[in-house]
């Protein structure tokens, strides 16, 4: 099949992102949406067609969504389902990770942005260096550090500070440590890009007008880096909500996040429609903060003097 | 008596030195600035004027020396503890705050009551005539308006000393001339002692009461614009301020009321004495506008009269500039106001002309 475009060069360039988004986002998402509204299949196919051949009727199955929000067991409340709990837990861990990344990443970025221009590339390289090793290996390494017989516990015991190993692996601690560690560069890079552009004379102006360095930081540096903070926060928060690998390696049974639930529905229960419905709801949960993000970056993109 | 002295020596720097690694940016600068005057630090870029201003503001710590404000050493005070406020080059207005908040920034840090802040910001907005713009962001204002916001912000805290860093540097030429007077009026109305830094001699001369000419970290001369222009103390100052014909030579006569210098174009008589020895190398400085030019030699003049050939003529509207080359090859720049002598208009390229000046119009400078 040949494309017949009047201005192939221009249209092609403009068209590439659209084609990309259509093939790799809109199409899969439509399939996902479709599956989320059909019945579970029999042994051969994982889901039934939406078109009932016998009756000739179009049948949307809302139960896939219904079961996410409404408890099936007797005596439990409306929204008390394992799915809702998993959503909330995911959002909570993602928020906590984003906050931790911000608290660690801000001084990090500030330091790099304030260092001599000649050493900045080296420092940025060090931020990105972990990407050169496999993501899985890096997460596994934390197992070795946090385990009962791991580096930290052994050191504390040999120092005599503790007699029994502290349970760190498979807890909130290990989960948050792992996620914060992995996602930190996503916070540092946009923050750095923002902070490095900041006019140092604005801080001098603040000192000159009677601000102590701490006050000047809070009243000038932080507000001016708002766009960087939001960008970094979203870049960490959004992928963290759906994070699957880190919780399954470092998290315990208490820390089941929505990614794991979708996996279980898909491969353990073989319930593709419900897994799809869960994924659609999760996308909704992510699109809302994204919309807020774009609202704010649009705001921050106003021209500066 | 003591009061008068403290008024004359309101802001004093004593042997102020700033070294960056091994480079000396400011070298033993002694200045005393009077209360209420506008004092300009004038020099080309890299002469140390900005470093000196930054030391006054507290952004740079002096390597040695003292900064005294009304007798108190302030050199060790942090910028936020110093009763000095600065108007920054290209203003450094806070882009995330509106005009009102920019001006209120310093007042809020003082912890003033809300009403007082409201009132003071209102006064400042009136002073710079920007009341209607209070809720705008800096980038929504023109360059001239931003400059006035910066001035209002630096005056809001009623500083003892106002520091201006190239106050008009970011404005275009037309706006600059208009703003010069506006700025001086406002500063004089407020009555604040003001130290400004500029590389533009015209700006320094129109705005400042006194000027310190700086070069290579040192102050070469301090004086009123007239003193500096008419009586430059060194070759550098004469060259830097305005334009000048510099004629090198040797001192040939040195009497109590006059002296003479033997130069390439002949002996030049100068109507002031110089404490030196006959034969020492000196230079005679003559401003182009002090030199007269004509096709005929004026009657009865025997000294400081020379001849040459017109090589270039430039018409500047209100005045003409002639470049005359003497038989010895010395180039002289001569300017004449337009309409002073009608016969000047007859002078054209390659004409042989006379040029002359009075004894009192030239200055002998040591090398």
What does this structure look like?
The complex is a heterodimer of chains A (305) and B (367). By secondary structure, chain A is an all-alpha fold. Chain A contains 13 helices and no strands. Chain B is of the alpha+beta class and 367 residues long. Chain B has two domains: 2-236, 3-Layer(aba) Sandwich (Rossmann fold), CATH 3.40.50; 244-366, OB fold (Dihydrolipoamide Acetyltransferase, E2P), CATH 2.40.50.140. Chain B has helices at 2-8, 49-57, 99-109, 114-127, 143-155, 173-190, 201-207, 225-230, 235-240, and strands at residues 11-20, 23-33, 38-42, 64-69, 72-73, 84-87, 161-165, 193-198, 210-215, 218-223, 245-254, 259-263, 266-270, 281-286, 292-294, 305-315, 319-325, 331-337, 352-356, 362-366. In chain B, the strands form four sheets. In chain B, strands 6-7-8-3-9-10 form a six-stranded mixed beta sheet, sandwiched between helices. A five-stranded antiparallel beta sheet of chain B has the order 13-12-11-14-20. Chains A and B meet through helix 8 and helix 9 of A and strand 6, helix 3 and helix 5 of B.
CATH fold-level label of the largest domain in chain B: Rossmann fold
Strand content of chain A: under 5%
The outline of chain B comes out as elongated
Distance between the termini of chain A: 52 Å
**Biggest beta sheet attributes of chain A:** none
Q: Low-confidence spans of chain A: pLDDT under 50, at least 5 residues?
A: 300-305
What share of the residues of chain B lie within helices? 10-25%
Mean pLDDT of chain A: 86
Helical stretch tally of chain B: 9
CATH class (first level) name of the largest domain in chain B: Alpha Beta
What is the number of independent domains of chain B?
2
How many structural domains can be distinguished in the coordinates of chain A?
Answer: 1
Quaternary organisation = heterodimer
**Which structural class should the secondary elements of chain A be placed in?**
mainly alpha
By secondary-structure content and strand pairing, the structural class of chain B works out as alpha+beta
């Amino acid at each position: 099949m040949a494309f017949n475009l009047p201005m192939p060069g221009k249209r092609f360039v403009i068209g590439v992102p659209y084609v990309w988004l259509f093939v790799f986002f809109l199409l899969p998402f439509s399939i996902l949406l479709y599956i989320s509204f059909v019945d579970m299949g029999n042994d051969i196919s994982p889901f039934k067609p939406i078109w009932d051949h016998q009756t000739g009727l179009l049948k949307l199955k809302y139960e896939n969504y219904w079961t996410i929000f409404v408890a099936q067991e007797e005596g439990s409340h409306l929204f008390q389902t394992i799915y809702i709990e998993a959503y909330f837990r995911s959002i909570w861990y993602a928020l906590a990770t984003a906050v931790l990344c911000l608290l660690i990443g801000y001084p990090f970025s500030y330091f790099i942005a304030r260092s001599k221009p000649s050493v900045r590339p080296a420092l940025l390289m060090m931020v990105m260096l972990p990407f050169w090793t496999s993501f899985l290996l890096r997460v596994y390494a934390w197992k070795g550090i946090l385990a009962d017989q791991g580096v930290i516990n052994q050191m504390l015991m040999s120092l005599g500070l503790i007699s029994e190993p502290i349970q760190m692996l498979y807890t909130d601690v290990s989960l948050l440590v792992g996620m914060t560690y992995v996602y930190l560069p996503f916070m540092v890079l946009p923050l750095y890009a923002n902070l490095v552009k900041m006019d140092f004379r604005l801080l001098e102006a603040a000192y000159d007008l009677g601000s102590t360095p701490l006050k000047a930081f809070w009243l000038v540096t932080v507000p001016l880096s708002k766009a960087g903070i939001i960008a970094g926060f979203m870049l960490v928060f959004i992928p963290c909500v759906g994070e699957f690998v880190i919780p399954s390696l470092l998290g315990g049974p208490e820390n089941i996040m929505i990614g794991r639930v979708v996996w279980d529905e898909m491969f353990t229960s073989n319930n593709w429609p419900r897994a799809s419905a869960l994924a659609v709801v999760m996308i909704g949960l992510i699109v809302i903060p994204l919309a807020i993000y774009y609202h704010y970056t649009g705001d921050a993109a106003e021209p500066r003097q | 008596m003591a009061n008068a002295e403290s008024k004359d020596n309101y802001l004093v720097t004593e042997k102020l030195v700033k070294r960056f690694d091994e480079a000396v940016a400011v070298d033993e600068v002694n200045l005393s600035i009077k209360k209420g005057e506008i004092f300009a630090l004038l020099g080309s870029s890299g002469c140390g004027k900005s470093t000196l201003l930054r030391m006054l503001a507290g952004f740079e710590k002096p390597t040695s020396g003292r900064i005294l404000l009304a007798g108190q050493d302030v050199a060790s005070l942090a910028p936020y503890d110093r009763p000095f406020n600065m108007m920054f080059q290209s203003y450094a207005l806070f882009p995330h705050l509106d005009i009102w908040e920019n001006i209120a920034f310093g007042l809020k840090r003082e912890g003033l009551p809300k009403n007082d802040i409201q009132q003071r910001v209102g006064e400042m907005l009136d002073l710079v005539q920007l009341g209607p713009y209070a809720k705008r962001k800096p980038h929504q204002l023109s360059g001239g308006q931003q400059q006035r916001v910066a001035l209002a912000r630096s005056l809001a805290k009623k500083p003892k000393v106002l520091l201006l860093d190239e106050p008009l540097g970011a404005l275009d030429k037309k706006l600059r001339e208009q703003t010069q007077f506006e700025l001086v009026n406002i500063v004089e109305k407020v009555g604040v002692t003001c130290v400004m830094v500029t590389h533009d001699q015209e700006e320094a001369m129109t705005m400042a009461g006194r000027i310190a000419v700086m070069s290579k970290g040192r102050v070469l001369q301090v004086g009123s614009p007239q003193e500096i222009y008419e009586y430059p103390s060194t070759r550098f100052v004469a060259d830097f301020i305005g334009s000048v014909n510099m004629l090198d030579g040797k001192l040939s006569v040195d009497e109590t009321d006059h002296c003479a210098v033997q130069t390439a174009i002949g002996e030049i008589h100068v109507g002031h004495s110089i404490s030196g020895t006959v034969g020492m190398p000196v230079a005679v400085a003559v401003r182009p506008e002090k030199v007269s030019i004509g096709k005929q030699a004026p009657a009865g003049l025997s000294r400081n009269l020379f001849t040459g050939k017109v090589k270039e003529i430039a018409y500047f509207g209100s005045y003409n500039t002639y470049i005359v080359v003497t038989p010895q090859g010395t180039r002289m720049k001569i300017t004449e106001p337009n309409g002073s002598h009608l016969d000047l208009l007859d002078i054209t390229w390659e004409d042989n002309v006379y040029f002359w000046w009075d004894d009192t119009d030239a200055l002998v400078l040591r090398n």
